[in-house]
Amino acid sequence: MENQDYFIGWGTLSLINAGLAQSKGRSGLLWWLISIVLGPVATLLIVVLPKEPQAR
User: Fold this and answer.
1) What pTM was estimated for this model as a whole?
2) What integer pLDDT is reported at residue 28 of this predicted model?
């Protein structure tokens, strides 16, 4: 049962990261995939990387 909780938490974090990445102008799908692999490290990267500049 513990493993199932671990995977649910990891999956939830990846969805949160995708939303956070989109709010910073980045690809939600790409960051969701990165988050599946890197988990909390991806969260840190999303937070510390600067916001993408908007195209004119």
Assistant:
1) 0.86
2) 95
